[in-house]
Amino acid sequence: MSSILIAGIGNIFLGDDGFGCEVARRLSGRRIAKDVRVQDFGIRGLDLAFALMDSHDATILIDAMPGGGEPGTIYVLETELDQISSEAAVVEAHTMDPIRVLALARSMGAELKSVLIVGCEPETFGPPDEGLMGLSACVTEAVERAIEVVESLVLKLRAVDAKGVTT
Question: Strands across the sheet with 74-78, in order?
């Protein structure tokens, strides 16, 4: 049986940057297969790097992700794992850069397989130097759509794995 890690990431004190945390929080209250682990990692990059050491068949990272679209737009990206270098893998204590975390995990010996990112176009990260609690209205509306996207990805990943194809 395969295993899938769903990791919400972001900073709840920076407005829409808390998107991944909120999606993970809501997903954790839903029925998901026992081989799927949902966790809110917040800004704890080192914790995520250690979780990636568990050799999951697939990982889905959920994060606020500026991509130039309208606020609330949902993106799905497949990470080019062969482009991630394990050299100079440094994780900062109060930020979460998913690519740096993947590089750190790889430098620690993690076997990264399929890594997808479900991102949401943010509207605001709050006033500079002040922060902002809570998501904007358009990003709040996008949370449920993101949950549907994640659940759909889990079904596809499990279906591919059931056919004996490496995910």
Answer: 36-42, 4-9, 58-64, 114-120, 74-78
